[in-house]
Amino acid sequence: MKVEKKEYTMTPRVLVLGEVLVEVMRKELDQPLSKAADFVGPFPSGATCIFIDAVARLGGSAGCIGVAGADDFGDCVVDRLRADGVDISHMRRAPGYTTGIAFVAYRSDGSRKFVFHLPQAAAALLGPDDVDPEYVAGAKYVHVTGSVLSMSESARQACYKATRACKEAGGRISFDPNIRPELLGIDRVREICKPILELCDVLLPSGEEAAMLTGDDDEETACRNLLADGIPIVALKRGDQGSKVFTDSQVIEVPTIQVNEIDPTGAGDCYGGAFVVGLLEGWDLARVARFANVVGALSVTKRGPMEGAPYRDQVLPLL
Q1: C-alpha to C-alpha distance for 201 and 233, rounded to whole angstroms
Q2: Chain segment 96-147, per-residue pLDDT in tens
Q3: Whole-number average pLDDT of the chain
Q4: Which residue has the higher pLDDT, 314 or 104?
Q5: What are the structural domains of the chain?
Q6: Secondary structure (H, E, C), the chain
């Protein structure tokens, strides 16, 4: 199924600030990136681009603010977003800069090794001037990821500007804190996440990320402490165990479906996109989480971080 192409005359309901990159991966397991071996790709990628593409495929109104290189890899990402119905009117191309690239090797134990060309790429040029407050103010949700916060100082300031504009206009903020602390240090991670957490309405962490943000050893304690800090919804992603959603009044544990995993990259981003779509539908949280679980599970069944993202009519029969 293809989504119906949308022509946007107003701000989409969900916006992201894009981490625009392509992914090139080893064809076989246990092939280190330090040795000569075959690759497959490029595949359109980037955490926020995966998120917003999932929103669009699920029938949501979706837009991306970001920077891609004026090159073939930029075409790869922008063309995919456009084809799936994402508003790209606020994406720009940067002549003289390459689009970001992630080289990925998969291991037999399920772990992955990445080499990123991102801070030096066009994506890192994203800055406050790319954020039109009037455009952002029309959105119901602005979604931010820790990977964009850590991309560059200018990208970080763009995220802060967009989230403030959205909140001031009555919108909501969703946040996936996917920063690797080994790159920045935990104290720095908490520092750059703090302005987003103060505005956050929906937090979408893994257990490790929740614990990293609070300093707690136990992921459930961490989630409860994040609620106590004023975040209304914390949706804890638990992989093949589904997810657990925390609010002040309830804790909902929701299972997922079993699938044949081909490529796990992007599953959490697809989960997040589906979660926001479900909230915008006005569903109860148990149904929202089930919807997000199924979307995240189906997303891992094809090679490439966006390739398995399902369409709405593939998901609803499985709820």
Answers
A1: 6
A2: 999 999 888 888 877 778 787 777 899 999 999 999 999 999 999 999 999 9
A3: 92
A4: 314
A5: 14-309 (3.40.1190.20)
A6: CCCCCCCCCCCCCEEEECCCEEEEEECCCCCCCCCCCCEEEEEEECHHHHHHHHHHHCCCCEEEEEEEECCHHHHHHHHHHHHCCCEEEEEEEECCCCCEEEEEEECCCCCEEEEEECCCCHHHHCCHHHCCHHHHHCCCEEEEEHHHHCCCHHHHHHHHHHHHHHHHCCCEEEEECCCCHHHHCHHHHHHHHHHHHCCCCEECCEHHHHHHHHCCCCHHHHHHHHHHCCCCEEEEECHHHCEEEECCCCEEEECCCCCCCCCCCCHHHHHHHHHHHHHHHCCCHHHHHHHHHHHHHHHHHCCCCCCCCCCHHHHHHHC
Q: What's residue 187's pLDDT? A: 87
pLDDT in tens, 172-189: 999 999 887 666 778 888
Residue 21: CA count within 13 A, CB half-sphere:
26
Token output for 156 = 């970080």
pTM over 0.85: yes
